Amino acid sequence: MAGNNDQRVLSIQSHVVTGYVGNKSATFPMQVLGYEVDTINSVQLSNHTQYDHFKGQVLNAEELRGVYDGLRLNKINNYSHLLTGYCGSESFLLEVVKVVKELKEVNPNLIYVCDPVMGDNGHFYVPEILLPVYQKQLLPLADLITPNTFEAELLSGKKISNEAEALEAMQVLHDIGVKTVVLSSVDTDQDDKLITLATSVKDGKKTGCRIEFPKISCQFTGTGDLFTALLLVWTHKHPDNLQLACEKTLSSMQAVLSKTDKHAQALAGEGNKPNAFQRELRMVQSKVDIENPTLTVKGSPLS
Protein backbone atom coordinates (compact mmCIF):
# COMPACT_ATOMS: atom_id res chain seq x y z
CA MET A 1 0.00 0.00 0.00
CA ALA A 2 1.25 3.50 -0.81
CA GLY A 3 2.14 5.66 2.18
CA ASN A 4 0.55 8.94 3.28
CA ASN A 5 -2.36 9.77 1.00
CA ASP A 6 -3.34 12.99 2.77
CA GLN A 7 -2.89 15.23 -0.28
CA ARG A 8 -2.73 12.84 -3.22
CA VAL A 9 -5.06 13.36 -6.15
CA LEU A 10 -5.88 11.16 -9.15
CA SER A 11 -7.30 13.33 -11.94
CA ILE A 12 -9.05 11.70 -14.90
CA GLN A 13 -9.89 14.17 -17.68
CA SER A 14 -8.69 15.57 -20.99
CA HIS A 15 -5.16 16.73 -21.84
CA VAL A 16 -3.79 19.17 -24.40
CA VAL A 17 -0.16 19.55 -25.47
CA THR A 18 -0.38 23.33 -25.63
CA GLY A 19 -2.74 25.53 -23.66
CA TYR A 20 -4.82 24.94 -20.55
CA VAL A 21 -7.89 22.72 -20.43
CA GLY A 22 -8.61 19.51 -18.56
CA ASN A 23 -5.63 18.10 -16.72
CA LYS A 24 -3.37 20.89 -18.02
CA SER A 25 -5.68 23.42 -16.35
CA ALA A 26 -6.16 21.42 -13.14
CA THR A 27 -2.74 19.96 -12.33
CA PHE A 28 -0.58 23.08 -11.87
CA PRO A 29 -2.85 24.87 -9.38
CA MET A 30 -3.25 21.76 -7.23
CA GLN A 31 0.50 21.18 -7.24
CA VAL A 32 1.45 24.72 -6.21
CA LEU A 33 -1.08 24.41 -3.38
CA GLY A 34 0.80 21.39 -2.07
CA TYR A 35 -0.99 18.39 -3.59
CA GLU A 36 0.59 15.45 -5.39
CA VAL A 37 -1.33 15.01 -8.64
CA ASP A 38 -1.41 11.87 -10.79
CA THR A 39 -3.17 12.17 -14.14
CA ILE A 40 -4.94 9.84 -16.53
CA ASN A 41 -5.80 11.59 -19.81
CA SER A 42 -9.18 10.65 -21.28
CA VAL A 43 -8.02 12.29 -24.51
CA GLN A 44 -4.70 13.75 -25.65
CA LEU A 45 -5.04 16.56 -28.19
CA SER A 46 -2.58 18.98 -29.74
CA ASN A 47 -4.73 21.86 -28.46
CA HIS A 48 -8.30 22.50 -27.38
CA THR A 49 -11.18 22.41 -29.82
CA GLN A 50 -11.71 26.19 -30.10
CA TYR A 51 -8.78 26.30 -32.53
CA ASP A 52 -9.36 25.81 -36.26
CA HIS A 53 -7.60 22.43 -36.16
CA PHE A 54 -6.83 19.81 -33.51
CA LYS A 55 -5.33 16.33 -33.64
CA GLY A 56 -4.77 13.60 -31.11
CA GLN A 57 -5.85 10.36 -29.50
CA VAL A 58 -8.78 9.16 -27.39
CA LEU A 59 -8.29 6.70 -24.52
CA ASN A 60 -10.81 3.86 -24.52
CA ALA A 61 -12.21 1.93 -21.57
CA GLU A 62 -9.78 -0.98 -21.97
CA GLU A 63 -6.80 1.40 -21.97
CA LEU A 64 -8.11 3.16 -18.84
CA ARG A 65 -8.41 -0.21 -17.13
CA GLY A 66 -4.86 -1.11 -18.15
CA VAL A 67 -3.42 2.09 -16.70
CA TYR A 68 -5.42 1.76 -13.48
CA ASP A 69 -4.47 -1.90 -13.09
CA GLY A 70 -0.81 -0.87 -13.20
CA LEU A 71 -1.45 1.40 -10.21
CA ARG A 72 -3.45 -1.32 -8.45
CA LEU A 73 -0.92 -4.10 -8.94
CA ASN A 74 1.87 -1.92 -7.58
CA LYS A 75 -0.38 -0.92 -4.65
CA ILE A 76 0.07 2.77 -5.45
CA ASN A 77 -3.65 3.45 -5.87
CA ASN A 78 -4.27 4.96 -2.42
CA TYR A 79 -5.52 8.53 -2.97
CA SER A 80 -7.06 11.21 -0.79
CA HIS A 81 -9.00 12.64 -3.75
CA LEU A 82 -10.34 11.60 -7.11
CA LEU A 83 -11.18 14.28 -9.67
CA THR A 84 -13.01 13.47 -12.90
CA GLY A 85 -13.79 15.79 -15.78
CA TYR A 86 -14.27 15.33 -19.52
CA CYS A 87 -15.02 11.74 -20.57
CA GLY A 88 -16.13 11.34 -24.17
CA SER A 89 -17.76 7.90 -24.39
CA GLU A 90 -20.22 5.76 -22.44
CA SER A 91 -17.84 2.81 -22.15
CA PHE A 92 -15.08 5.04 -20.76
CA LEU A 93 -17.43 6.65 -18.24
CA LEU A 94 -18.71 3.24 -17.11
CA GLU A 95 -15.10 2.21 -16.51
CA VAL A 96 -14.64 5.39 -14.48
CA VAL A 97 -17.55 4.25 -12.28
CA LYS A 98 -15.65 1.01 -11.57
CA VAL A 99 -12.46 2.93 -10.78
CA VAL A 100 -14.31 5.21 -8.35
CA LYS A 101 -15.73 2.21 -6.49
CA GLU A 102 -12.35 0.47 -6.34
CA LEU A 103 -10.59 3.58 -5.07
CA LYS A 104 -13.24 3.99 -2.35
CA GLU A 105 -12.57 0.40 -1.28
CA VAL A 106 -8.85 1.17 -0.97
CA ASN A 107 -9.56 4.40 0.96
CA PRO A 108 -13.10 4.66 2.38
CA ASN A 109 -12.37 8.33 3.20
CA LEU A 110 -11.59 9.20 -0.43
CA ILE A 111 -13.15 12.50 -1.50
CA TYR A 112 -14.60 12.22 -5.01
CA VAL A 113 -14.96 15.51 -6.89
CA CYS A 114 -16.97 15.16 -10.11
CA ASP A 115 -17.19 17.80 -12.81
CA PRO A 116 -19.99 16.31 -14.96
CA VAL A 117 -18.76 17.72 -18.26
CA MET A 118 -21.55 17.31 -20.83
CA GLY A 119 -22.15 20.65 -22.52
CA ASP A 120 -22.94 24.32 -22.15
CA ASN A 121 -25.29 27.00 -23.45
CA GLY A 122 -27.97 24.45 -24.34
CA HIS A 123 -25.69 22.14 -26.38
CA PHE A 124 -24.18 18.74 -25.64
CA TYR A 125 -20.55 18.16 -26.57
CA VAL A 126 -20.53 14.56 -25.41
CA PRO A 127 -22.93 11.75 -26.42
CA GLU A 128 -26.28 12.22 -24.65
CA ILE A 129 -26.11 8.59 -23.46
CA LEU A 130 -23.64 9.79 -20.80
CA LEU A 131 -26.41 11.62 -18.92
CA PRO A 132 -28.04 8.58 -17.25
CA VAL A 133 -24.59 7.22 -16.32
CA TYR A 134 -23.89 10.45 -14.42
CA GLN A 135 -27.38 10.55 -12.89
CA LYS A 136 -27.69 6.95 -11.77
CA GLN A 137 -24.14 5.76 -11.20
CA LEU A 138 -21.59 8.55 -10.70
CA LEU A 139 -23.49 11.23 -8.77
CA PRO A 140 -24.47 8.86 -5.92
CA LEU A 141 -20.72 8.25 -5.42
CA ALA A 142 -19.71 11.92 -5.55
CA ASP A 143 -18.88 14.11 -2.55
CA LEU A 144 -18.69 17.34 -4.55
CA ILE A 145 -19.98 18.22 -8.01
CA THR A 146 -19.48 21.37 -10.09
CA PRO A 147 -22.00 21.43 -12.95
CA ASN A 148 -22.65 24.53 -15.01
CA THR A 149 -26.26 25.68 -15.33
CA PHE A 150 -26.97 23.56 -18.42
CA GLU A 151 -25.51 20.45 -16.80
CA ALA A 152 -27.44 21.09 -13.58
CA GLU A 153 -30.66 21.29 -15.61
CA LEU A 154 -29.87 17.98 -17.33
CA LEU A 155 -28.92 16.17 -14.14
CA SER A 156 -31.86 17.44 -12.07
CA GLY A 157 -34.48 17.48 -14.81
CA LYS A 158 -35.42 21.03 -13.79
CA LYS A 159 -35.29 24.24 -15.81
CA ILE A 160 -33.12 26.98 -14.28
CA SER A 161 -34.02 30.56 -15.14
CA ASN A 162 -33.44 32.23 -11.75
CA GLU A 163 -31.75 31.66 -8.40
CA ALA A 164 -34.76 30.02 -6.77
CA GLU A 165 -34.98 27.44 -9.56
CA ALA A 166 -31.21 26.87 -9.33
CA LEU A 167 -31.52 26.06 -5.63
CA GLU A 168 -34.42 23.69 -6.34
CA ALA A 169 -32.30 21.87 -8.93
CA MET A 170 -29.40 21.68 -6.47
CA GLN A 171 -31.69 20.06 -3.89
CA VAL A 172 -32.59 17.36 -6.43
CA LEU A 173 -28.86 16.64 -6.78
CA HIS A 174 -28.50 16.42 -3.01
CA ASP A 175 -31.41 13.98 -2.98
CA ILE A 176 -29.47 11.77 -5.42
CA GLY A 177 -26.73 11.56 -2.79
CA VAL A 178 -24.27 14.38 -3.51
CA LYS A 179 -23.00 16.07 -0.33
CA THR A 180 -21.87 19.39 -1.86
CA VAL A 181 -23.19 21.04 -5.02
CA VAL A 182 -21.59 24.15 -6.52
CA LEU A 183 -23.02 25.92 -9.56
CA SER A 184 -20.03 27.83 -10.85
CA SER A 185 -21.69 30.57 -12.89
CA VAL A 186 -25.37 31.38 -12.83
CA ASP A 187 -26.54 34.27 -15.00
CA THR A 188 -28.13 37.30 -13.35
CA ASP A 189 -30.34 40.09 -14.68
CA GLN A 190 -27.17 42.16 -14.98
CA ASP A 191 -25.04 41.52 -18.05
CA ASP A 192 -21.79 42.25 -16.18
CA LYS A 193 -22.45 39.98 -13.17
CA LEU A 194 -22.43 36.25 -12.51
CA ILE A 195 -23.32 34.26 -9.39
CA THR A 196 -21.88 31.13 -7.83
CA LEU A 197 -24.30 29.15 -5.65
CA ALA A 198 -23.05 26.47 -3.27
CA THR A 199 -24.93 24.19 -0.89
CA SER A 200 -23.74 21.38 1.36
CA VAL A 201 -25.53 18.79 3.47
CA LYS A 202 -23.72 17.44 6.53
CA ASP A 203 -25.29 15.40 9.34
CA GLY A 204 -28.71 16.26 7.95
CA LYS A 205 -28.09 20.01 8.11
CA LYS A 206 -27.97 22.09 4.93
CA THR A 207 -25.83 25.21 4.58
CA GLY A 208 -24.91 27.33 1.58
CA CYS A 209 -23.67 30.58 0.17
CA ARG A 210 -24.20 32.99 -2.70
CA ILE A 211 -21.29 34.84 -4.31
CA GLU A 212 -21.67 37.55 -6.93
CA PHE A 213 -18.69 38.53 -9.06
CA PRO A 214 -17.93 40.60 -12.18
CA LYS A 215 -18.20 38.96 -15.58
CA ILE A 216 -15.19 39.37 -17.88
CA SER A 217 -16.33 39.78 -21.46
CA CYS A 218 -13.53 37.75 -23.10
CA GLN A 219 -14.29 34.10 -23.97
CA PHE A 220 -11.99 31.67 -22.16
CA THR A 221 -11.46 27.91 -22.37
CA GLY A 222 -10.52 25.67 -19.43
CA THR A 223 -12.07 27.86 -16.73
CA GLY A 224 -14.39 25.13 -15.44
CA ASP A 225 -11.48 22.72 -15.05
CA LEU A 226 -9.50 25.35 -13.14
CA PHE A 227 -12.50 26.18 -10.95
CA THR A 228 -13.08 22.55 -9.94
CA ALA A 229 -9.40 21.92 -9.17
CA LEU A 230 -9.17 25.01 -6.95
CA LEU A 231 -12.42 24.11 -5.21
CA LEU A 232 -11.14 20.59 -4.49
CA VAL A 233 -8.18 22.10 -2.64
CA TRP A 234 -9.97 24.87 -0.75
CA THR A 235 -12.87 22.69 0.39
CA HIS A 236 -10.28 20.23 1.70
CA LYS A 237 -8.36 22.99 3.52
CA HIS A 238 -11.60 24.56 4.85
CA PRO A 239 -13.92 21.55 5.30
CA ASP A 240 -16.32 23.47 7.56
CA ASN A 241 -16.39 26.76 5.65
CA LEU A 242 -17.81 26.32 2.16
CA GLN A 243 -18.20 30.07 1.69
CA LEU A 244 -14.52 30.77 2.33
CA ALA A 245 -13.50 27.92 0.03
CA CYS A 246 -15.64 29.39 -2.76
CA GLU A 247 -14.34 32.92 -2.10
CA LYS A 248 -10.73 31.78 -2.39
CA THR A 249 -11.50 29.78 -5.52
CA LEU A 250 -13.29 32.65 -7.24
CA SER A 251 -10.72 35.24 -6.17
CA SER A 252 -7.95 33.18 -7.81
CA MET A 253 -10.16 32.67 -10.85
CA GLN A 254 -10.74 36.41 -11.22
CA ALA A 255 -7.00 37.08 -10.97
CA VAL A 256 -6.15 34.47 -13.63
CA LEU A 257 -8.87 35.66 -15.99
CA SER A 258 -7.99 39.32 -15.54
CA LYS A 259 -4.34 38.64 -16.38
CA THR A 260 -5.39 36.53 -19.36
CA ASP A 261 -7.79 39.17 -20.66
CA LYS A 262 -5.22 41.97 -20.44
CA HIS A 263 -2.57 39.83 -22.12
CA ALA A 264 -4.93 38.73 -24.89
CA GLN A 265 -6.06 42.28 -25.65
CA ALA A 266 -2.47 43.51 -25.71
CA LEU A 267 -1.43 40.80 -28.17
CA ALA A 268 -4.49 41.28 -30.39
CA GLY A 269 -4.12 45.05 -30.56
CA GLU A 270 -6.75 47.71 -30.04
CA GLY A 271 -10.07 46.95 -31.70
CA ASN A 272 -9.12 43.37 -32.63
CA LYS A 273 -10.64 40.18 -31.22
CA PRO A 274 -8.05 37.90 -29.54
CA ASN A 275 -7.60 34.48 -31.14
CA ALA A 276 -7.62 31.13 -29.34
CA PHE A 277 -3.89 31.11 -28.66
CA GLN A 278 -3.91 34.64 -27.29
CA ARG A 279 -6.76 33.69 -24.93
CA GLU A 280 -4.96 30.73 -23.32
CA LEU A 281 -5.07 31.04 -19.54
CA ARG A 282 -2.07 32.82 -18.00
CA MET A 283 -1.64 30.04 -15.47
CA VAL A 284 2.08 30.17 -14.66
CA GLN A 285 2.00 33.97 -14.57
CA SER A 286 -0.75 33.72 -11.90
CA LYS A 287 1.15 31.37 -9.56
CA VAL A 288 1.16 33.85 -6.66
CA ASP A 289 -2.58 34.52 -7.06
CA ILE A 290 -3.22 30.77 -6.92
CA GLU A 291 -0.99 30.12 -3.90
CA ASN A 292 -2.16 33.11 -1.85
CA PRO A 293 -5.46 34.45 -3.19
CA THR A 294 -6.37 37.98 -2.20
CA LEU A 295 -10.06 37.88 -1.32
CA THR A 296 -11.43 40.19 -4.01
CA VAL A 297 -14.70 38.26 -4.09
CA LYS A 298 -17.02 38.10 -1.08
CA GLY A 299 -20.13 36.04 -0.56
CA SER A 300 -23.04 35.80 1.83
CA PRO A 301 -24.76 32.83 3.53
CA LEU A 302 -27.97 31.52 2.03
CA SER A 303 -30.88 32.03 4.38
How would you describe what is shown here?
The chain is an alpha/beta fold and 303 residues long. The chain is built from 9 helices and 12 strands. Strands 3-2-1-4-5-8-9-10-11-12 form a 10-stranded mixed beta sheet, sandwiched between helices. Helix 7 (223-237) packs antiparallel against helix 8 (242-268). The longest helix has 27 residues, at 242-268. The termini are far apart. The mean pLDDT is 94.
Secondary structure layout:
Layout: E1 8-16, H1 22-32, E2 36-45, E3 56-58, H2 61-73, E4 81-84, H3 90-106, E5 111-114, E6 119-120, E7 123-124, H4 130-138, E8 144-145, H5 149-156, H6 163-176, E9 180-187, E10 193-202, E11 205-214, H7 223-237, H8 242-268, H9 287-291, E12 299-301
Parallel strand pairs: 1-2, 1-4, 4-5, 5-8, 8-9
Antiparallel strand pairs: 2-3, 6-7, 9-10, 10-11, 11-12
Helix pairs in contact: 1-7, 2-3, 3-4, 5-6, 7-8
Short description:
The chain is α/β, with parallel strands linked by helices. The protein has nine helices and twelve strands.
Features:
303 residues, alpha/beta, ten-stranded mixed sheet, two-stranded antiparallel ribbon, 9 helices, globular
